[in-house]
Each structure stands twice: as structure tokens, then as C-alpha cells.
Amino acid sequence: MKAVIDDKIPYIKGQIEKLIEQTVYLKGSDIGPNDVADADILVVRTRTHCNEALLKGSQVRLIVTATIGHDHLDKDYLQRAGIEWTNCPGCNASSVMQYVHNSLLALGLLKKGLTVGVVGVGHVGTLVANDLEKKGLNVLRCDPPKGEKYTLPQLAEVCDIITFHTPLTKEGNHPTYHLADAAFFASLKKRPLIINSSRGAVVDNEALLHALESGQVSNAVIDTWEGEPNLNRQLLGKAIIATPHIAGYSADGKANATRMSLQAIADFLVKSGKTSLPSFKVNPPRLPKHFSYADTTENSTSSVPKALRLYDPRTDTARLKAHPEAFESQRGNYPLRREVDDSTALKRALLSTQAWLRGLSFRTGVIVLLSCIPFYILSFAQMALPISAATKTLLWTILFGLAKTTQYAGITILGVEGYRRFKSFFKKKKQ
Questions:
Q1: Is 228 a catalytic residue?
Q2: DSSP-assigned letter for residue 72
């Protein structure tokens, strides 16, 4: 079996080879029909347009895009051709949340009393909305397909900040192409900050430029652009934060996407009849001590808030504004960025324990919890043995201690897994 893989997908090399016999790594935008003709699986990002022009006559059976978005896939053609596809929903949601949070922090807008409109409340928008609510901002959720209370015109009336987190669609009852257009900007009652980290064409870039020049909006934070990588240079100059489509590019988000991609391939292989699959491990690199995103030298110090030391979007902005022609290069050679600080042994141990607990299954929790029963029974049953009182006391202490340990361990595992299932259940109900 052969896989063609975008060479900018991180942490996948050496892991996918455990699943696939033959692998070929290519630049995503350069993958062409000759490259995929004899491939069974494609692992791509948004730069590879998977359509009839690419796939006709190939033997491709599965396409995995290591991204949340999937508008670069021609789903109608894939269905006609019998090609399965999967994306990685939610893989970098917390990374985009960090981007929005830190952008507002850097601009001094992460403060109580401001009203934020969150347009699109899927994986990303929900995390963003919850995060900003925790910081005391008044959050209005707008997502008509999901039945949310607020509409875009209502947001235009009252919001100080409007942030977009929708997929890009051109058809259906609620198309998002140019959702924020000239008419939308003209309807704004305040002069809000506009944030777009969803898809470039969700916001009409020419209309946004005019809104900035005419004062209809106060400023813009832009991560996704129409016509990437050939972005509007005037809009780039006007935006206060302007980055090269990297909001979801934390090492944690990348690792999540790669892990989900590998799991999708493994699931496909199981359906195809493969019974023995190896395990794979995908972890982001650790941070060096005294890490600062604004100055990535190991011994750097900074007076900026801890959150901005982990990630400061102004650094990416300065880089893009200095060299806009290097848009693709800046995406493909993105520096280390983490959502969490694991620069000390204690932090790494705590994060590893947290990850280990999340990885344990509900069944494991039940088994561990039930294992306390024999220890409880033995701790009392040994009292009937013809041994000394001192020995009975010692045995009771050991056995009862083991019973309590397994009981609380089981409850902890069930609590972590139960909470995850509880959230997942209500998320699905809401959708």
C-alpha cells in the first residue's frame, strides 16, 4: 500500500511508516495526478485541492486532510468516485482559541465590559466563547444552523469585537462566502475590532479594507486571507495583527491533527481487513527553559504576561509585514509554539499524568474500581487467621490501603473519562 503525504505535516514521518509500506513526501501545492496515480492514501493540508483533475484514474481510496477545514476537497466528486475522506475536527481548536485570546491580550482588549460577537460556534468558536466569558467579556453567540440566539445584524448593533469561526460554504441556507461584506460593514453601529481566523473568503477583504479606511471598523486581526498566498498588501498594512494562516499552528494542535490522521488511517486499514496494527506516539517538542515566543533564545527574559511569552502574535505580524512574499515559507517553517509551558520536569510530569489519565478508557476505570472489592474482603477476612494481633494489624493496614488506593484511582479515571463523555454528549445534542 502507498501513501502520498504533504511534507509539511509535522511529526508524521516515522509514524505513518508503521502503518503504510510505501510513503512519498511532497510539497502540498505540488502534488499532481502523476504523483497520486498509484497511491492508495493521500494525507494532505489545505494547499492540495483534491478534485477530479487530481484524482481521475488514480487508485486512491482514502484522503485524510490534517486540518479542520475541508473546502479544498471536492466532496461531490469523491462520493461519485467512491473515495473516502476524513478531516480532523477540533484538532487545533485550542490553538485558535490561544490566538484570539493572546491577540486581544496584546491589544489591551481582554477586559470586562466589552461585548464580543462569536460567529460560528463549532469546536473553535465554542472554545473561544467559553474562554472570553471566563475573562468577564459579554459574549454573543451567532450560528443560525445551530439555532443560536443572536443574528449577524444583532451583532452589528452592539459588539465591540466580532470574531469569525465558520467554515467556508457557498451553497445551502446559510452560505458563509463573504459573510462579512460591504453591506455588513455599513450596518455596524459601533466601530468594532474584526477578527478572522476561519477562512479568508468569509470576510470580503476589499470591503474590510474600505471599512478600515473609512472608519467603519476600528481595526482588524487577520490570519486567513482571500487569495492566499497572494494577500492584499494594503490590507496587510492596515491590519494591527496580520499573520500567515497560522492561528491553529501550535505544536499541540499540529500533534493532535497528526494523531487524528494516523488514527483515521488505522481505522481504514481495519475496515479493509488488516487485523494487526502497531501503536504510534505523537508528542510536540518540549519548551526550553525561559522560553519566550518573542525571543526564542533559551536565556531570554521578558516582562510581558506569561500567556504572551508562550505566544505573541505580534511576532508573527512583524515577520509577515516585513516579508509578505514569504507567506508560504513562514507557514511551512513556523517556529515552535506551545499552548502549555512544560519547560520544567515538574510541569512535564503533571502534563504527562494529565494526558495519561485522559488516555485511560471507561472500561479501565471500572476494572480498577472493582479491584478494590477483593482487597476490602481480604483486609477483614484475614482477621480470622490464626496469626498474631500485630501481624493482623499489619495485613489489615496494607490490604485496606490497597483497597482505598484502587477505589480512588478508579473513581478518578471514571471521573476524567465521564466528564469527557458528558461534554461530548451535550456537544452532540447541541449540534
A1: yes
A2: T
Summarize pLDDT for 227-285 with one digit per residue, the tens.
Answer: 999 999 999 999 999 999 999 999 999 999 999 999 999 999 998 887 777 778 888 99
Burial environment of residue 229 by CB neighbours within 10 A (0 to 12, 13 to 18, 19 or more):
middle
Spot the catalytic one: 165, 199, 259, 319: 199
Distance of CA 96 to the CA centre of its chain: 7
Place of cell 475522506: 85
For the question of residue 213 being annotated catalytic, the response is: no
Dist CA 280 CA 276 (whole Å) = 13
Is residue 245 among the annotated active site residues?
A: yes
What is the value of pTM for the model shown?
Answer: 0.76
Catalytic residue (one of 84, 133, 228, 328): 228
- CB neighbour class for 159 (10 Å; exposed up to 12, middle 13-18, buried from 19): buried
* Catalytic annotation, pick one of 101, 245, 319, 337: 245
92-144: per-residue pLDDT in tens? 999 999 999 999 999 999 999 999 999 999 999 999 999 999 999 999 999 99
* Amino acid (one-letter) located at 249: Y
* CA–CA gap between residue 173 and residue 176 (Å, rounded): 10
List pLDDT tens digits, range 71-91.
899 999 999 999 999 999 989
Tell me the Ramachandran region of residue 275: left when phi exceeds 0, alpha when psi lies from -120 to 50, beta otherwise: alpha
Angle between helices 251-271 and 93-106 (to 10 degrees): 170
Helices (H) then strands (E): counts for the chain = 17, 11
